[in-house]
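Suppose you are handed only these lines of text.
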Amino acid sequence: MKLPILLYHKIDRIPAGSRYPRNYVTPEQFEAQLAFLARRGYTSVTFADYLAYRRGERLLPRRAVIITFDDGYRSNRTIALPLLRQYGFGATIFLVTAYVGMTNRWDADEIQEPLLDAADVRAMQAAGIDFGSHTATHARLATLRPVEALRELRTSRERLGELLGKPVRVLGYPYGDYNRETMQFARDAGYEAGVIIRRRMNTDTTDLLELRRIPITCLTSPGRFAWDLFRLRWFHGS
Ligand SMILES: [Zn+2]
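From them, the structure of the protein bound to zinc ion can be written out as follows.
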């Protein structure tokens, strides 16, 4: 099967002075995208569902999608979650574990916005939202020395596992930055899947440590959104 995984950051109004406005999708755009998915018969699945499918242990709905958010902004709870629930979709949020309850201090030149805190994470988990690791400090993994990369991967997985009360299986490589070595470190640290940034579907043979995500930004038109989901179904492999 072909699985699209969507990548979002912030669902919110774009504040004046934002350095990276593409990290925003407005609530109106997001709602229109969810309505489109619902109308076309898409069902959201979890990474656990998909991993079980890849092991041959379960089937997935014909039109499955995974919705993901990077960084874990508080607006994921206040703005995105109500819309997700309204349309019956789940999502996976990749958290920067050392900064839970703080702000996006890894991009110091961007407007600082609150991130989900531990209570937010637990409340969202109770509401059916899944979480993965986006490393401890939003590290550019492929540029780190091996010992540092492994520490980022291991400490974030441990800390998030404690917060969630269950093992963490999925990693979102910060900046989509990774290489062969990074993938091996992720495997060594206990991750079963890793997500990158690439406008392609996932097939039954896509490397699980290199799952592609389609980035959605404030510039993604309704036509482009529909086209990505339709056209990419016909692409094979890489
Ligand atoms: Zn990020």
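What can we learn from it? The CA atoms of residues 11 and 79 lie 7 Å apart. Residues 5-234 form a domain with the TIM Barrel fold (CATH 3.20.20.370).
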